[in-house]
């Protein structure tokens, strides 16, 4: 948020070592060519999706295992699919879960299926980054297993299956081999489990399906943030199967090339971002802005982002401080979805018009409240040393389309809408399309503060404005 406010003013100043790194990496990047392959035209998008999917999986698993509901599935015998070091997409059974003192996360000890001659390799940095895996790994050659400690975030799927265990504790204790190749009972059990895992992996591959638990139904996880990520996860997962590059016989190699190039690209972006952040802190205006944010309690005295700051970070398409203040001061609470979306248009619509819109009492009050809130922000900015006069700040709000958007959200046909205003059709359409993004921002902000009512209202608002001509009319928005 703070960064965004100032990005235009940032002057790039040299920080020599990092600058050199950026230049070197960029040179290397230029020499790398994108994969040229007839099958892999959509590989870049596929890579993006897989990378995103793994990030989501990481967050989801971290959350699940941090809840008490999640710890229910942690009982020994639970069947997972894991991705850990050399074990990729491998089935594993949970033997033990424990939370060592002073360590925030649980450690899972699992017995994982592998082949006897599987080469153990330390996969190193980036090992858990996206790989195109759609099948469970089925060992070739003689079956074996390994008992490993993993983090919850190494779990790819929590299946709804459990295996019966006789003596998991015994399996965990390392013992020297018995003379004559004899086996202890627990070694026998481990072998049996390995056989069972093999049968399960083959069956899952045949059916092309892993039946997982449903966090919402089975674990009753109702957290809104989690639900949003879970639905994104499912959408991407379904989409992954539609990629043409999956038909490429050299997908692994081509994917690997893309991975190398993309991760270098990301590294450069990160370096550049750090550099610009360093420059940013040199600006006096940055300090003034920080004072504003401290005064309004977006960051604390140590500049640590507070709840308000987190909410503001969700707002990408309009004045994030104003929207956050509206939310925190309950200005939107008693309004209907139609009224909220209409009023939000004051931050999206940008032209000055002389129409005299005819507003209902609630909308008038809403408008007054927004102006009051903006005045407070403007005054705080002045007090903290910023130079923009309050009036100039207030002039950025344009209420000219409030009535139009209100009637549109209430279902008035587009042809009639245009009679309410002198604003051009194309401008109205663009404003409404952008408002949909704003609704999404406010919805996400509501998720962050845990306001399910506002969340639902914003979802409804999105639905109400997404009608016929406006969202079909690509001629205006293209
Ligand atoms: Zn290819």
Structure explained in plain terms:
There is one protein chain. With 478 residues, the protein is α+β, with helices and mostly antiparallel strands. It has 3 domains: 2-40 and 248-280; 47-246, no CATH class; 301-477, Sec63 N-terminal domain-like fold, CATH 1.10.3380. The chain is 53% helix and 9% strand. The chain is built from 20 helices and 5 strands. The protein has helices at residues 2-6, 16-31, 43-66, 68-72, 168-172, 185-207, 224-240, 251-280, 284-295, 307-313, 320-328, 337-348, 361-383, 390-395, 402-409, 414-417, 425-449, 452-465, 468-472, 474-477; strands at 78-84, 87-98, 107-115, 143-150, 155-162. A 5-stranded antiparallel beta sheet has the order 4-3-2-1-5. Strand 1 and strand 2 (87-98) form a beta hairpin. The chain binds zinc ion. Zinc ion is lined by residues 37, 39-40, 248, 250-251, 254. This is ATP-dependent RNA helicase Ski2/MTR4 C-terminal domain-containing protein. GO terms for molecular function: ATP binding; helicase activity; hydrolase activity. One of its GO terms (biological process) is nuclear-transcribed mRNA catabolic process, 3'-5' exonucleolytic nonsense-mediated decay. InterPro entries: Beta-barrel_MTR4, MTR4-like_stalk, RNA-DNA_Helicase, Ski2/MTR4_C. Keywords: ATP-binding, Helicase, Hydrolase, Nucleotide-binding.
């Amino acid at each position: 948020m703070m960064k965004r406010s100032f990005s235009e003013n940032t002057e790039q100043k040299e920080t020599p070592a990092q600058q050199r790194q950026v230049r070197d990496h960029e040179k290397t990047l230029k020499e790398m060519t994108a994969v040229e392959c007839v099958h892999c035209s959509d590989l870049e998008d596929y890579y993006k999706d897989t990378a995103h999917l793994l990030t989501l999986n990481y967050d989801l698993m971290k959350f699940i295992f941090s809840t008490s509901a999640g710890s229910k599935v942690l009982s020994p015998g639970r069947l997972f699919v894991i991705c850990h070091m050399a074990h990729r997409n491998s089935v594993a059974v949970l033997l033990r879960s424990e939370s060592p003192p002073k360590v925030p996360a649980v450690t899972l000890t699992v017995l994982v299926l592998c082949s006897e001659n599987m080469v153990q390799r330390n996969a190193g940095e980036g090992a858990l980054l996206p790989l195109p895996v759609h099948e469970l790994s089925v060992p070739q050659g003689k079956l074996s297993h390994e008992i490993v400690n993993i983090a919850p975030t190494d779990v790819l799927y929590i299946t709804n299956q459990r295996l019966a265990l006789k003596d998991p504790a015994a399996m965990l204790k390392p013992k020297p081999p018995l003379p004559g190749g004899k086996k202890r009972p627990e070694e026998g059990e481990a072998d049996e489990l390995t056989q069972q895992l093999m049968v399960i992996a083959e069956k899952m591959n045949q059916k092309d399906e892993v039946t997982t638990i449903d966090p919402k139904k089975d674990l009753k996880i109702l957290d809104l943030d989690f639900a949003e990520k879970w639905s994104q996860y499912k959408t991407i997962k379904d989409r992954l199967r539609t990629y043409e590059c999956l038909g490429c016989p050299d997908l692994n190699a081509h994917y690997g090339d893309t991975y190398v190039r993309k991760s270098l690209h990301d590294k450069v972006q990160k370096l550049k971002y750090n550099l610009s952040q360093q420059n940013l802190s040199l600006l006096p205006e940055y300090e003034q802005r920080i004072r504003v944010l401290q005064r309004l309690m977006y960051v604390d005295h140590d500049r640590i982002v507070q709840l308000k700051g987190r909410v503001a970070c969700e707002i990408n398409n309009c004045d994030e401080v104003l929207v956050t203040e509206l939310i925190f001061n309950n200005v939107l609470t008693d309004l209907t979805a139609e009224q909220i979306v209409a009023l939000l248009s004051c931050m999206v619509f940008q032209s000055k018009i002389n129409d005299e819109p005819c507003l209902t009492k609630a909308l008038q009050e809403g408008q007054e409240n927004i102006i009051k809130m903006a005045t407070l922000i403007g005054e705080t900015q002045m007090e903290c040393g910023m130079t923009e006069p309050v009036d100039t700040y207030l002039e950025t709000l344009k209420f000219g389309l409030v009535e139009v958007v209100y009637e549109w959200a209430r279902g008035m046909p587009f042809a009639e809408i245009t009679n309410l205003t002198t604003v051009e059709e194309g401008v109205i359409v663009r404003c409404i399309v952008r408002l949909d993004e704003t609704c999404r921002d406010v919805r996400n902000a509501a998720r962050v503060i845990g306001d399910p009512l506002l969340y639902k209202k914003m979802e409804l608002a999105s639905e109400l404005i997404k009608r016929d001509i406006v969202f079909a009319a690509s001629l205006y928005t293209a």
